[in-house]
Amino acid sequence: MALRGAPGLRGPSVILQRMSTPAIRPASAAGVDAARALALARDVLTTEAGAITALSARLDAAFVAAVALILNCRGRVVVSGIGKSGHIARKLAATLASTGTPAFFVHPAEASHGDLGMITTDDVVVMLSNSGETDELVLLTPHLKRQGARIVALTGNEQSSLAQAADVHLDVAVDAEACPLGLAPTASTTAALALGDALALALLDARGFSVEDFARSHPGGSLGRKLLTHVRDVMRSGRELPTVGIDASLGEAVVEMSGKGMGMTAVVDTTGRVSGILTDGDLRRCLQRVHDVATVRAADVMTKTPRTIAVDRLAIDCVELMEMAPKVMQLLVVDADHRLVGAVHLHDLFRARVV
């Protein structure tokens, strides 16, 4: 457990640790002392990693209670903090919201001047304060309780006012800050950030939140585009779709290919079912072996087993089919009866930013 005491005081082990750390001094005119900078950086990383490791060992039933309280919340999760803890609180609210737990940040000072109206009796309020004595947060607690909201507090002091007022308290105490002066919030904010992530991801798992759910929360990102964009969203259809009948001449097929700009034309029978595909490659191979193309039908030189994909498949699935040897640039889109409904070119996937 962390050594406790008045703010600014440190236990014996912490004092010895800080005695071994070089005091900060201005960089010389020649530049940064590389050895000192690396030594200090490694000390910071080691201290913060140790804070998280110690926090992991202290997790207990209180963490489970916090997860259950938020999971059963009928309203929203309101996250609040001020200063450096406020920045961590904003990040926690964003992480919760993007992983299936509706949440938003409220600044504690603004809450005292009207924003308290954002919070309802069905909400859970998560408060972050290393000391647990932050005035703006402590002064809010009686108003929140009067409204019926539940409180989860993340503090570094189990005996603090905020910890005592909370329905669930999560201990994020650290032995020492990573700051060589022992002043700037560093290890303490890292510990709060890590515990917030643990809380959000435990809730994600409890909700059965899926990759598809995550994509719906991130439609503008790469994952969102890959998991939300379907073949129907990128395919060409109607007048843009190059198509000829089974009895079309090679010349008619070439005109259709040239006019639609996909480097191919689908060949369909009288019922609209796909009979094959005629591509630029098929045309070049035909010209190498056929001297009188006027007598050739498209069906004579087409690829009879074209690659197809269903209209409701994900657009990203097109890439896998196109990459199979031999690689192709186009796919025909068909319905359950193998009737042609569209076509996809590799360039269509690039335009949709699926690849």
Structure description:
There is one protein chain. The chain is of the alpha/beta class and 355 residues long. It has 2 domains: 12-21 and 32-209, Glucose-6-phosphate isomerase like protein, domain 1 (Rossmann fold, 3-Layer(aba) Sandwich), CATH 3.40.50.10490; 231-351, CBS-domain. Helix content is 44%, strand content 14%. The protein contains 17 helices and 11 strands. It has helices spanning 12-19, 34-58, 61-71, 84-98, 108-111, 135-138, 141-147, 161-165, 187-207, 211-217, 222-228, 231-234, 250-260, 280-289, 298-301, 316-323, 346-351; strands at 77-80, 103-105, 124-129, 150-155, 168-171, 243-245, 264-268, 274-279, 308-310, 330-334, 340-345. The strands form 3 sheets. A 5-stranded parallel β-sheet has the order 2-1-3-4-5, with helices on both faces. A 3-stranded mixed β-sheet has the order 6-7-8. A 3-stranded mixed β-sheet has the order 9-10-11. Helix 8 links the parallel strand 4 (150-155) and strand 5 (168-171). The longest helix has 25 residues, at 34-58. The protein is elongated.
